[in-house]
Structure formats: structure tokens, C-alpha cells
Amino acid sequence: MILHFKEKKLLFGIISPWFKVQVRLYKNGVTVSEVVFNGTDSNMSSWFSPSRIMTSTWSDVTPSQTYNFFNMEGHIQT
Fold it and tell me: What single DSSP character describes residue 24?
């Protein structure tokens, strides 16, 4: 079963039971970028972690890359 959540031209494909989570960016209905995360033993937010990256069309989006911010909320300033 595949569920799709669409938000601001992002399409999240979640393959049950959370084995893979696909984040795809589309332009004119065509996938232009994709990151696939390992969703095993994750929940609705914990899958989005650099350590869970399986594949990416971006060469600099990898599990070993250092990121300033990598979370669903983005950079939250207080």
C-alpha cells in the first residue's frame, strides 16, 4: 500500500509498513529530484533524518554529509 501526501509541490510516498519513505520534487508533473529514506522502525517524523538516507538524486545529500539543519520544521529562530 502506498499513501501520498502532497504539500507545496512535495509528494511524500510512504510504503507500508514504513520500509521506505520517498520525498520527490516535481516540475510540470515530472520528478526532478528524489530522496529515499529508510523508514523501518520510524514514525511520522523520525524517518526524516540524514542517517536514514538510502538514495538521493543530489550528490551532496548523503548520510555522511554535515548539515546545519535537517529536520521537518527547518530552522526555528527563538
Answer: E
